[in-house]
Design brief:
Number of helices: 7
Helix content: over 70%
Shape: rod-shaped
């Protein structure tokens, strides 16, 4: 009789542990999803700001049509991206295009002095800082989640429960492009 109680006790402990592991992994997955939603909100604000910035620049730099078109194309690509990997790649392309657009202001003193442009550029700079903070929070949540599904003994249950590895929001191959200041030639 005591052997059956021990077996039942072990089974109960395993079931309780599985429930605990499952609940912890669900909480970690929800944190990742919430962090990505936060990044998405910041990116949406940036996407809404871009048309105003482009229109302001158009009046001063009409012959820079290629740069303006690149920004609009990159914005449209970023708007249609789905999932962290696609969003990350599209946003990196948009960041590069925005860098070239902002660099135009150096070549046009009247544009640089324009109050509307200054306000939009300031808002964009503020949003870029918020996006960077949101990305860091997201990547931290992904790191905790990925660690959680790989650590023993939760790793024994993670695959069974359908928990799979998440991708980081990374600059990837375009890191050098983003970190390099754009060159403006006339």
């Amino acid at each position: 009789m005591s052997t059956s109680w021990i077996v039942i006790g072990v089974i109960v402990l395993l079931v309780l542990f599985a429930f605990g592991a499952y609940n912890r992994l669900v909480a970690l997955r929800q944190r990742v999803d919430q962090a990505f939603a936060d990044v998405d909100v910041q990116l949406k604000q940036r996407h809404d700001l871009i048309p105003n910035l482009v229109e302001t620049v158009k009046g001063y730099a009409a012959h820079e049509r290629g740069t303006l078109d690149d920004v609009i194309k990159a914005r449209n690509s970023a708007l249609s991206a789905q999932g962290p990997a696609q969003v990350s790649a599209a946003e990196n392309q948009l960041t590069g295009a925005l860098g070239r657009l902002i660099a135009l202001s150096e070549a046009y003193p009247d544009l640089k002095a324009n109050a509307n442009f200054q306000q939009l550029a300031s808002e964009l700079s503020d949003l870029e800082n918020k996006i960077a903070a949101s990305r860091r929070f997201f990547n931290n949540a992904v790191q905790e989640y990925n660690t959680g599904i790989q650590q023993m003994p939760a790793a024994l249950f993670a695959g069974m429960f359908g928990f799979t590895r998440k991708d980081f929001f990374d600059l990837g191959a375009s890191r050098a492009e983003v970190e390099t200041a754009p060159s403006v030639k006339f």
